[in-house]
Amino acid sequence: MTRALEVGCIQLFAPDVGKPLQWRLLSGNNRESGRAVAQYQDVESCREGVRRVQAALDRLTGTVRRTPRNQWVWQLLDGDVVVAVAGREYDRAIRCEQALDAFRRGLRDAPITTNILVSNARRWETRAVGPSSIGRAAFPQRRQPL
Does the predicted TM-score (pTM) go above 0.85? Predict the structure, then answer.
């Protein structure tokens, strides 16, 4: 796919402070490529969840399926357990398959950001985590809801 996806990152996010975290792969232009299904209670367990999926990529199975709205989505499975899903729907099966392949390539070596995106209704903001986080996040403060 595009080089933009290759220089993406993994973003941790939560609906509010103190709520469970999830992670998603963002492309170089900050578009969501795919996201985890699991939720995590803290930052370290979320980061560990990312690392587990990255380490298991070669044995995970990808599937593409049609939605009731005649669109296409992909899933990444560990046995019978869905671990990641498409960030959006696709109009063609081939585009969905290409997006799944791009997600796998992008996730393999993507860095995990040091900030957490916290959403509250229509406003989005980021909160730095850990001693290595300095200043504001690289992501805009206002974003569209997921």
Answer: no
